[in-house]
Every structure is written in structure tokens, then in C-alpha cells.
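Supplementary Note 3. Input sequence used for the single-chain structure prediction.
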Amino acid sequence: MLTARNLECIRGEHRLFSNLSFSVNPGELMFVGGPNGSGKTSLLRLLCGLSLPDDGEIYWNGTDIRKLGVDYRDVMTYLGHLGGIKDDLTAIENLRISCALAGCEIDEDQAADALGQIGLAGREMLPARVLSQGQRRRVALARLLVTRTKLWILDEPLTALDVAAVELIKGILEHNLAKGGMVIMTTHQELVMSTVTVHHLVLS
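The predicted structure, written as C-alpha cells, is reproduced below.
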């Protein structure tokens, strides 16, 4: 279980949110919504441990994530809205490097298989600079097919994806949740998840 208690986040002179509390249990998905500048990405970065709240605590199974350190990172996958794709690397190289940096090393065959599953068969050896925005997004999202983490924190994962790709990602999310995983994500696109418990957190 991931639990946030009385979180506060201040950027410059602006308080994005305060007294923010919630819990996400195994098998549950939480959509984080709100207008631009309301603190959605800032909240996700807090939940990942990439930045610290100005007040409040975040717990994983009852322990403060700051005390867990690498043990928390080992159960969590974070995908930022920019994707982190390098233009001069191939799709396979991008996927393998992102996995290695996250502590989940895969070989070339595993990378090619994941890219094929996510709709990039035949483009595995192309440099990312020649891929469309949607294809680049698929490269980043392919990590979800090989990760063994329970908690997924995803910042606008559906950006630039067509209808078929959105349905594919929906299936990947549902599969993770059915295994007892947890997903926290932002999205501006409609995503109907009828088979899982869904929460909505709206920042204002």
C-alpha cells in the first residue's frame, strides 16, 4: 500500500497543494487530474522520491519511503511525460538502457520481444530520431512489459498515442492491476477501466 499523509508542495511563492492525503491499495488505480500548473507532475515526483514534500510523509507498506531508499525504488517504476528517449540510440538500445538504469537488465531478444508486443516490430533497430512521437512513446512504455515492479507511477503515458495504442496500454495496466499491482497516473485522455478499482484525485 502507498499512503500519503498531509502532503504540502510549494514552488517559489506558490503553494500547489497542502493537507493532501490518500492511499492506494494493491489492485487499484488512481487518476491524478487538474488544470495545468496545479501540481500533478510535482506530486508524482514526490511519490517517486525524486523530490521532497515541504510537509507531510509518504509511506510504502507503513514505512517512510525516505527510510526505504533503494528498497522502495526496487518496487516502483516511474515514467515521466518526456519519456527520456535518446535520438541517436535505436529503439532496442533506448529500452535496454532505460531498463538497466531502473535496475532491470534485459537482453536484446527480450527488448525486441517487448517492442514487438507494443507495436514496433520492424522498427527495433531504427534510431529514435526517425520515429514518430507516438512510436517514441511506445518505446518508453515498452518498459512496462518487462518490469517486475508493483507500483507504476506514470506521467501522461497516453500522450501522442493513437486509439489502438491506448487500448494496448489499457490492457497492460489491467494486467498489472490484476496481479495486485498499483498504478498512479495523469492523463488528459479518456481511459475507461471497468474491471478494476479506480480513484480520482483532482488538484485545483
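The chain has one domain: 2-84+142-202. The chain is about 30% helix and 25% strand.
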